[in-house]
Amino acid sequence: MSVKVVKFGGSSLADANQFRKVADIIKADPERKFVVPSAPGKRYSDDIKVTDMLYSCYELSASGKSISEQFEKIKERYNGIISDLGIELSLQKEFDEIEYCLKAKSGRDYAASRGEYLNGIILANYLGFEFVDAAEVIFFDDNGAFMLDKTIEAIRERVKDLENVVIPGFYGITLNGTIKTFSRGGSDVTGSIVARAVRAKIYENWTDVSGFLVADPRIVDNAKVIKTITYKELRELSYMGATVLHEDAIFPVRTAGIPINIRNTNDPSAEGTMIVSEETGEEINKTTITGIAGKKGFCAINIEKAMMNGEIGFVKKILDILYKNNLSFEHIPSGIDTMTIVLSSASLEGKEEAVISQIRKEIQPDHLEVEHNIALLAVVGRGMYKTRGTAARVFAALSHARINIKMIDQGSSELNIIVGIGESDFEDAIRCIYNMFIEAE
Ligand code: ASP
Fold this sequence. Notes:
Blueprint: E1 4-8, H1 16-27, E2 32-37, H2 50-62, H3 68-85, H4 92-103, H5 108-127, E3 130-131, H6 134-137, E4 139-140, H7 148-159, E5 165-166, E6 171-174, E7 179-181, H8 187-197, E8 202-207, E9 228-230, H9 231-239, H10 250-254, E10 260-264, E11 273-276, H11 278-283, E12 291-304, H12 314-324, E13 338-344, H13 345-348, H14 352-363, E14 367-380, H15 390-400, E15 405-410, E16 416-422, H16 426-439
Parallel strand pairs: 1-2, 1-8, 2-5, 3-5, 4-6, 8-10, 9-11
Antiparallel strand pairs: 6-7, 10-11, 12-13, 12-14, 14-16, 15-16
Helix pairs in contact: 1-3, 2-3, 2-5, 3-5, 4-5, 7-8, 12-14, 15-16
The chain binds aspartic acid.
């Protein structure tokens, strides 16, 4: 029988009511055999995630203060869920041990990991599934690097005779026995690893939105859900600021060709977004563009010098200066006698004067200036490949909205068109491109 791995985020497990929805979803499909839970998240907008409460216990303990009050609140969250679910379970033994370890300063990652650990025990009990501690099967080396092969082997061995399993997300153990977490949101990564290990036919990632949206819903009202997106497109959109899934959650399933389905716990009938490999993705979803994303906070170093294009090593000298100043650039659009380096303003902060004077000294430009408050916007879509007129439509939309384009870049893969515009035009630019492609198609 094929199996599915289902990961539930913090908002999906924030209280007993959410636990019930999760159990209904799992019980509705017998293939949903492997469950990866997060720690309880926010129940309302100014609520505090259990993970954050645990981090603050760690901070308190590290600075020699009492954790009692804060730890009491954490116990209340879990005991509340247990009593509302009406299950026979006491976590007293676990609470005592955790409190002892927190006081004994067992480490920041240890503290944070207990959120998933305790939630996993409750969920396993409620579902009647086997609980497998992530510290038994998810491994990091002594430098903290995740060990994929050892982990896959350990998961396969540990679950080989088990029917239905709960493995808490977010953490694992180093070879020297210390608990270590992935970065924030890392339960997504655990889900992906488990999916790879058990050769799942699909990795369902259940959250509180009905999938990846074509554009940021804070900018575009009622933005449509992307039905299918390829891993590559997802990478482009995530890099440009669209977030639903932890970036590292892609690699374990991608090589194994396991699709990820983003689903909504609060609307299980919605199909969500399917993240697939490039080959599968080509046939489905024939819209020209898949998504639009962007970020503010860039600047451009504009350089002009007569006969620049004939001077061998010109660009190298500039790149050397960036390298020496530990600066990474985003784009380098260039003309015959001009070139621009686009990079994040934050990275240039405190270095601007030095970098500019080094460029002046090294290449003696005719003109050199730094322009701030630039936004970059990426229009991403595998449907653009060899489709005529996509760029024309992007520029027409921007021109109708009277938006000035400062920079244009299109990768050779024809998967995206990136434009640089003024920050004040950012929201309008996203809306007009959305209307041009999504509303019109
Ligand atoms: N609970 C962790 C966090 O808040 C990990 C996760 O939810 O994926 O970041």
